[in-house]
Amino acid sequence: MGIISRITSFLNSTAVEPVPKLGRNEPCWCGSGKKYKRCHLEEDDRKRAKHGRAACRTS
Ligand SMILES: [Zn+2]
After folding, report:
1. pLDDT digit string (tens) for 4-56?
2. pLDDT score, position 19
3. 5: CA distance to ligand 1 center in Å?
4. Rounded to the nearest whole angstrom, what is the distance from the C-alpha of residue 31 to the centroid of ligand 1?
5. How far is the CA of 57 from the centre of ligand 1 (A)?
6. CA 10 to chain centre
7. How far does residue 42's CA lie from ligand 1's centre (Å)?
8. Is 35 helix (H, G, I), strand (E, B) or coil?
9. Are 43 and 52 in contact (CB under 8 A)?
10. What is the distance between the alpha carbons of residues 50 and 36, in angstroms, rounded to a whole number?
11. Model-level pTM?
12. Which protein residues have their CB within 5 A of the ion that is ligand 1?
């Protein structure tokens, strides 16, 4: 026992990881060619807020 649960928790912790941080004026990570702030910034913020709330509730 041990190793599998370690791997699973490692995978879980990385799977939950949201999108990498980007500068607002950098090209969006989705490859649209738009600036991040014009593309996915709002959506990512919303996701981050959701995650934060969920983490607060569970911990
Ligand atoms: Zn985008």
Report:
1. 888 677 766 655 555 567 899 999 999 999 999 999 999 998 988 887 765 55
2. 56
3. 34
4. 7
5. 29
6. 15
7. 10
8. strand
9. no
10. 20
11. 0.51
12. 28, 30, 32, 39-40
